[in-house]
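As a warm-up, study this chain.
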Amino acid sequence: MQRTLTLFFILVLLTQQAFAQSTGRIEGRIQSERGEGIAGISVGLEGTSYGSTTDDEGKFLIRNIPAGSYTLVASGIGYTLQKQSLEVTGGKAAFVNVDLATSAHSLGEIQVTAHRSGDYLQRTATTATKMEAPIKSVPQSVQVVSRRALDQLQVLRLEDAMRNVSGVSMETGFGGRSDIFQIRGFRTDMQSVFKNGFRNTVRTYRESANIQQIEVMKGPASVLYGVSDPGGMVNISTKKPTAHTFQDIQFTTNNFGLVRPAIDLGGAFNERKTLKYRLNAAYERADSYRDFVKTKRFFVAPALTYDFSDRTSLTVETEFLNHEQPSDRGIFSVNGQIAPVSRSRVVIEPSNTGEFKNRLAQYNLQHKFSEALSFRHAFNYNYATETRDVVEQTTVLKDGSFRINRQHQDQDTYDRNIATQNELYANFNTGALVEHKAVGGIEVSRSVFDIWVKRAPYDVFDILNPQYNTKPKDYSLLKYAQDYQDRVDVLGFYLQDFITINQRLKVLLGGRYDFWKQEKEDRLKNETTEQNNKAFNPRLGVLYEVYGPVSVYANFSKGFQPGIGQTLEGEAFKPITSVQYEGGTKIGLLNDRVNLTAAYFDITRQNVVVPHPTQSGASVQLGEVQSKGIETDITGEVLPGLNVIATYTYTDARVTKDALSGDDPKRTVGRRFRGVGYNNSSLWTTYELQNGFLKGLGIGGGFTYVEDRPVDDANSFMLPGYTRYDATMFYNNKRFHAALNVKNLTNVKYYEGSQSVTVIMPGAPTTVQGTVGVRF
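Now compare it with the structure written out below.
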């Protein structure tokens, strides 16, 4: 029997050898004009059934091809079709690299479909222009955190990624239950976090499992996106369906009881690779360094893409998120002294609960009429709920003790958002030296926000001698404090032209006109009020390539936010406006493997609503605030395997005008922004072995430095600065990947951020987090 099996295997091997000698294979890589591997590109031999699709690194392999002459055809939506002649020799491999040029743009997807997940440096982005454009050519500061950086940082929450973007500082986020940042000094709340180009209003932490990359555009974004915070916007690009089949299963844990399995699956349902899918899912259960604060979440995000033809494609994405976590507003201070307690001490009750649900559905339909003209129609629906039953702090007792009043609050919130974007893209020339890439669009959206809040005084809590579970929550004492519905309708028209003159001069010119309408139904007062705002917001940017990799740029842009309320005369407030002046340089170092961006910015926010100087309880639009400073970002591969992300920011953000006279003790002019230190910096660097038996093994680390910053708007006292060190060790090959990260390596005691003197969040102690994964 053994002899028979041996002869059988020899016969099979001889047959395979003979077949291999008569056939060959083609190996290659499809890359963009800037050398980036492009995933999902169809590659085939003209007139035959032989073909393949590129993987995440742009690589492909076609096997068992009879010897002969062939024409290789590479095509993908948003790219110009390329053909290349080649010879296939029996028993040998033909190697070929093909450069694909973009056909004017990638149909303005505001999403990432063709970036290598293995690169720290992402050379193109869509957020700033609504079309895929090289970042170094855009006359505005744009930073990108790539998927590879997210993996090596082991990012589970957006804040862990945003530490590596200049000009960004942390917020406490609605009691530690949402993603809130400060960009260039200004608070960037839920209205300025986007997902695939749509406003992404949620009531809890956004899930990181299906994030492909994070793009941060600095300065007002109203020129393309309407209502925006002055400091900038964050756009999350999600993972998209792929033509090549893969499965990635991983498990993450840490020293605070984290249990987190996750999957990432992709592939095609048919042989022609026209129907593709992607599925990301995660389950999470964890304790934390804060007493009584436990989390539990379930997330699933299926996505489908159907290519009707090489000109038309439809992508549909959905997300389902359930999250449980009690809100935690940290600790408090008394007379400028933060309560001297451990980082685990809380002011909340063990019985506090918080339940959050988020549902999202998006589709993106793209059609290319010709190489010069294309159309995009996209739709977004987002539904978020929040149910909280909490006991939390309110006001400190005035006797100098570390005691604080607490209240019992029962809250329900419902947030619904629907929006559609319709955009036409054109690529044309005027004369021999002027190239235009233009986009015009219409956005229509409606959001409906309902909230019911009941409150009642609860007790007095001594944080130095805490007593929990001393009394039950009496729901009969609760009284309505808020009960209203906001309905907001927005209609926006925008037009932009990205002009290239003689290849070296770039001009970005655009504007948007918005009609904003709000109806507020106050159910407690049984009254409905209406407010209307109109705003035109232009942008002008100029970039000039001085020589080689060095460019200089400048831009001017305006933004707006609705002015909520009315004057004493009963007139509605005007929009709150912001104006940015920015200038800087962009330099490609080491043959463009490393990008350096240095920028100076000056942002002034006007028509700020402030208290009336003489009428108690009234407001006027006389306020003005200003933030100015410099930023530097360095990102890329310094040497093969040696990657770096380094940032530095100097920010001077303060009140420049209020409604009070110069000798009024309540005057706020000169006060600095809460939570914004003058100097902040960060560094993250990793080195991965490129050859040998241990190829794929890497180590790395870095730090985050935050200077002293005001604890509140009144500048009552300064939160102390800190330097936090992190480290990592990882291994990655085709089938297996693992990482071990240590966050806050030296266990420094620091404070993450604050909302007031009574809401101060201690930072986490040393956290050891590990992930192991297998790919199939």
